[in-house]
Design brief:
Blueprint: H1 3-18, H2 25-32, H3 36-42, H4 46-69, H5 75-83, H6 86-90, H7 92-97, H8 108-118, H9 120-146, H10 156-176, H11 182-197
Helix pairs in contact: 1-2, 1-4, 2-3, 4-9, 5-11, 8-9, 9-10
Amino acid sequence: MDRKEEIIKKALKLFLQKGYEKASLNDIASEVGISKPGVYHYFASKDKLFHEVLSYFNIEMKKWSLTRFQSCNTIQDFLRAFFSSLSSLKEIAKKILGISDEQTSYSFLELLLSASKKDNNIKDQIGNSYVVTRENIKALLENAQNNGEIRNDIDCEVFAFQIVALIEGILLISSFDDSIDVDIIGEKIFNNIWKMLSV
């Protein structure tokens, strides 16, 4: 791992531990074992560093998605895998870093919300990643319609939005309510969705 990637990973860890606002560049430099100017050598500001953290996270998510969904041959397979991966999605930032619950106080969703309130460019970057996700799901749904796998009267663009909103809603609600088993609710929601979609 090169120094730049090490800074990004340590920054993500500290953001999860302290939150976006409280994790300082001094903290990050200390965690890496370099000076604050050493961090500035790679990143012009904390916001620029957070942009790189988001990019790194997106790359890791793509790798995870390729592994998770590579064996999905139908839209039904994809949706089942998507909704059965909620526990992994909930903890993906910690898994990328190899850290436990005890080492973090903040979820990745909390980081995204706090950082996006401070920087419109971060907000746009997050928004664009949601757009790409919805477009990918829309394309899968349209392909499934063309293959006769799902009903042809479904608005694929709106349904893709519903799927993403459901996933985010489940992850948000489960972060407040520990009694929710995201794997069980994910399977039940998948079953309801498939009843709506199937021909």
